[in-house]
Target: Twitching mobility protein
Amino acid sequence: MCSDETKADKTFTKTKKAGAENVKIQQLFKLMVESGGSDLHLTVGTPPGLRVNGEIVRVKIPALTAVDTKRLIYQILTEEQKNELEKNLELDFSFGIKGLARFRSNVFYSKGGVAAVFRQIPSIIPDFKALRLPNVLLEMTDVSNGLILVTGPTGSGKSTTLAALIDRLNENESGHIITLEDPVEFVHPHKSCIVNQREIGTDSLNFKSAMKSLLRQDPDIVLVGEMRDVETIEAALTIAETGHLVFGTLHTNSCVQTINRIINVFPADHQDQVRTLLSFVLQGVISQQLLPKSFEPGRCLGMEVLVPTPAIRNLIREDKIHQVYSQMQIGQDKTGMMTMNQTIKKHVDAGLIDTDTAMSYSTNPEELAKQLGVKGR
Model:
């Protein structure tokens, strides 16, 4: 756990003595940015919490009351947003503070009080090379159409990876990029491409409506912020089939699980057709998670990459998806594919994480135990 409490103490010395009622939310945002935090949590009965290197650290001020949380959160809401929150009991939005950062926000009610989580969105779009992403991702996106999926749990860096890929296409292609996001995170400037970013709830009523009108907007590259339901997934497959490059995200933990999720969201009598379509349009699956480093602050990226070779496309069509994982491990020098366990083992070998951490984050701990030469769990 991060123990950098000095900044918090210095920033809030006067507030600590006077009570939490004097804290301003801009102070908390500034502290989050200066501390390298990814998220700020505000809820009743505890001091504000910062997620630093994956773990929650409490700010050294008194516990917040219901009055405190409402006052802090309402400082940044418009009247329209306040009304929406009080009507729907939850609110998603994003905003920026000049000279500091952009934030993605979710406000909700907990035990009758207002609570919120604010996630910091870097103002600078991450550079592909700086992120040390594998070159196979660039090869995967060097196509004119198809479907590319970036998956993983919440907070696994999916948005960062996608932003880096979209930025490379924005620089090197000459087309029209449309993103559908809830809410908009990284803001992409117009470079070689024209970029339109649509925020669900602000620029369109919902994903379904936005997807329905998408093909009339002459896109070349489409980003669907989250493929949540059968209508959105079906539309993404159709758009990919009609000659567009589509990026989408899912909250799945492996490449094989992602393929199964796409297929199983459809009724049984449609699944054969979906398998066939998916086998043709799929251009790649990236599954990722962030692992806490064991011997120093920070986290490292665990990544699994599937490239649909002819053999894998055939397995998808023939409903033999359970064989895809073993196929991913064949000819990796040529295909660029990698499994999550292989990535985790590299981090262990490099001294970034210990064996216990590796085993706890593995999606196949029995296999990883054999690779590491330890007794499995």
